[in-house]
Amino acid sequence: MLRTRTSLSTWSQERSMKWLVLLGLVAFSECIVKIPLTRVQIMRKTRSEKNMLNSFLEEHDYRLYQTSSPGSNITIFPLRNIKNMIYMGNITIGTPPQKFQVLFDTGSSNLWVPSMFCTSQFCSSHVLFRHRESSTYRPTNKTFSINYVSGRMKGIVARDTVRIGDLVSTDQQFGLSIEISRNQEVPFDGVLGLGYPKFSFSGVIPIFDNLKNQGAISEPIFAFYLSKGNPEGSVVMFGGVDTSYYRGTLNWVPLIKAGRWCVRMDRISMNRRIVACNAGCEAILDTGTSLITGPRRLVDNILRFLRAKPRGSEHYVSCSAVNTLPSIDFTINGINYPVPAQAYAIKGSDGNCYITFKPIPVNTPREIWVLGDVFLRQYFSVYDRGNDRIGLAQA
């Protein structure tokens, strides 16, 4: 599970890093850039499974390509899900382009990748940006520091051309990491944040804002479809909404406050019994988080209701019991969004099914829940910067 956060004081900037838009009902296909994702099953941390993951990456060379839908200019690029349902894809930086695999993360605001200056163990197994090989590279005098629950990162800010498929952001500021105290086995290289500029480090303008300001996208909107079972098919799209990715009505929810992808949630319930968020709470929709996280006391209550057994920091149930477990309903803006047991209980390699609810690793003054990929696989999500709102519909 991955979560980035800056060294600012708010909790949303201090969450743990996870490793492993207004075009509602009409698809303006000529303006939409779609980036498909590929899913890889969960692999638990045994030596044989680490080798299996490495073999998979070697056998499935990940190449950037594009295809267009017949009769339109919608462009599609492959992304993949690696380990614990993390959705990531290729971008390029520099001239000529240097390719990186990054996490597309609504929970952070900056783009960063490892640099050739990095001497940390993490960087030894990842693609490094080689600034001397790019004719469009420009240094700055800015530095940055990002604190994680389980580590930290320091680096410098640089400028160069960044491409997400056909979308090009020229003179884009981004982070080059010099020191990363994280697990070097994580298969992606960096993070591409899709949050608001408010949480950007060192005053850097996020790439989505630059794309908007430079006229690369017609509408300040992006959206995610995360596949439930197929290795391929997941998509992040920029500049509009393709209605073929959801069913029914796209329900719009205003943000609590412009600046982060956070909405008011009414309650969390099981079998019509409220189990959390009794008086309303905050819900952050975060593509960079694999799980659903909340206050420890309330998560523990849910685990007890499910009769989940502890194993280390995880909780599990017998997979034979999953079909008897209730859906968990998240009520947002008066509408119920159920997450069935088959979605929140994930089978591990040991034959048990692990519950994908975890306590938030820091204390918060208010009740806050983070709805990560477990929730977002069920619901197509649209992020409308122009109107400061999020749209949700059945995926």
From TrEMBL:
A Gene Ontology term for the protein's cellular component: extracellular region
Location(s) in or outside the cell: Secreted, Extracellular space
Which stretches are transmembrane? none
Please give the positions of the paired cysteines in each disulfide bond.
Answer: 118-123, 277-281, 319-353
- Gene Ontology biological-process annotations: proteolysis
Annotated active site residues, numbered on this chain, are 105, 286
Keywords annotated in UniProt: Aspartyl protease, Disulfide bond, Hydrolase, Protease
Which coarse location class describes where this protein primarily resides? secreted
The record's similarity note reads:
Belongs to the peptidase A1 family.
Name listed for the protein in its UniProt record = Peptidase A1 domain-containing protein
* Taxonomic classification: Eukaryota, Metazoa, Chordata, Craniata, Vertebrata
